[in-house]
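User: Run a structure prediction on this.
Assistant: Running it now.
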Amino acid sequence: MKRSTRSLVLGLLIGMLIGVVGLVGTAQTKTTITFWHTYSAAENKELVEVLIPEFEAANPGIEVKPVQFPYDEFHRKLITSMAGGVAPDLARMDIIWVPEFADMGALAPLDQNFADFQAYAKNTFAGPLSTCYWNGFYYGLPLDTNTRVLYWNKEMFNAAGIQGPPSTWAEFKADAEALTKDTNGDGEIDQWGFAMGGTYPWATLPWLWSGGGMITDPKVSEASGYLDSPKSIAALQFIVDLYKAGAIAPTVFGGGIGTYDGLAQNKYAMLLSGPWIFPIMKGMYPDLELHPALLPAGPGGSISVVGGEDVVIFQQSDHKEAAWKFVQFMLSEEVQLAMAKVGQVPVLKSVIGTEYMKTHQYYPIYLEQLQTAKARTSHPAWQEIRAALIDAVESAMRGGKTPKQALTEAAKKIDQLLK
């Protein structure tokens, strides 16, 4: 073989070898991040088939491995994975869990790790954002949210000659009492003005806050003087009085037919619910027309409760920068709107003015309510705080204690939990 030919062949072989080495190097430098979540089937389909491919195309050095879990198993799975040192890089978790996991040292403080954190935080609703804060730092960002608004039965209101939903507590009380009736004439109430699903904080906190009450001080350091303040006591008294007047359906203690069934069957004139009521009712009562409105304003305003999930990055992750890129992607307006189309309420204030949100069947009322909605107490001991609140409300409504006695005792219990 001539020298020139040998040189050409040798050059080609070297070129091929460099190409192979380059490909191997590229494969080795690709970062894989795991994302655990509890999205529904439709939401997961959008995530897996549309959003993650878009992210990976824009970030060819990062691969996202999503893992879907049933909600009821997720908390336990996260605990056991951390104990085994195999926590995911990031996760979408219930807002109530964030302070608990942050207190364990499991989560990375995003405001300390990423310089542009505040740019994303300031575009989210204040209520959902507050769920990420614990002990001086932000350990997540809101990913999706929800709240509760008032639903009123237009047919029942019209029959009673009431024009439109109540906008104040005084109107709400008058409407609830006027719409509570014995329609059969047998001496038994069979139509109620308002239906509550229970005495848990998700159902009762909107009344406490709208009445101007509080659970704790803003620093979440004490409940005495706040949960048992005159405004908090008056708010609970408002609910107690309605119950004693017979205007609150037996659903509050597990009796009667379900709240949704009662609304559809003209048994309950009003109730509070989140946006999931629309797809649920469409399946159960396809011809029913739903009528949402803002919560009636009390002395403290119209204030509902925040639900939803936050996105967090685990301290165990070796790929925090890659995980942060995915967080940024999920909090883009385009992705938030894409997930809105499969049922997720966006967390960005900037989406309010988009054409899709303005013309949606029910998102506008929820986005309006979210501007004043508050989150449940962000504290690792929330479950114990929740139990104390339930005990207080139940004892006051059943008549075992006055609202003042019940809330004073609950405040003392919560003080101990906060210590």
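Residues 162 and 175 are 8 Å apart (CA to CA).
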